[in-house]
Structures are given as C-alpha cells and as structure tokens.
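Tokens for chain A. Residues wanted.
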C-alpha cells in the first residue's frame, strides 16, 4: 500500500513541475493508480465478507 501511495505522490509532484499534455497524462496516470488500488481493496473486502457471511451448508 505504501508503494502505491508513493507512486501517486511522485506522479502528482511530476505533474506539478510540468505543463500541458504531459501534466494531464501524469494526472490521469495518478488517478488510474488510485482507481486500481481502491478497486482491488473493494473486491478483496467483498470476497472476505462473502466468505464470512456464507451460510453453513451442513445443516
């Protein structure tokens, strides 16, 4: 998780030091990284909850 946050921070700082299309692309990359990280966390949390709330089939 720390490396993802570091990557986003690096992309944002690089975006601040550039302008135009390069800045927009760096911002887009940072947004996509955040989207992937949040998506992976949501999926893994959903899977964990599904296993915990799974009804017992042996009854």
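Reply:
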């Amino acid at each position: 998780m720390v490396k993802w946050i570091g990557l986003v921070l690096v992309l944002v700082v690089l975006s601040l030091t550039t302008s135009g299309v390069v800045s927009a692309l760096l911002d887009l990359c940072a947004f996509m990284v955040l989207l992937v990280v949040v998506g992976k966390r949501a999926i893994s949390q959903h899977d964990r909850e599904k296993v915990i709330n799974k009804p017992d089939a042996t009854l």
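The helical segments are 2-17, 21-52. Residues 2-49 form one domain.
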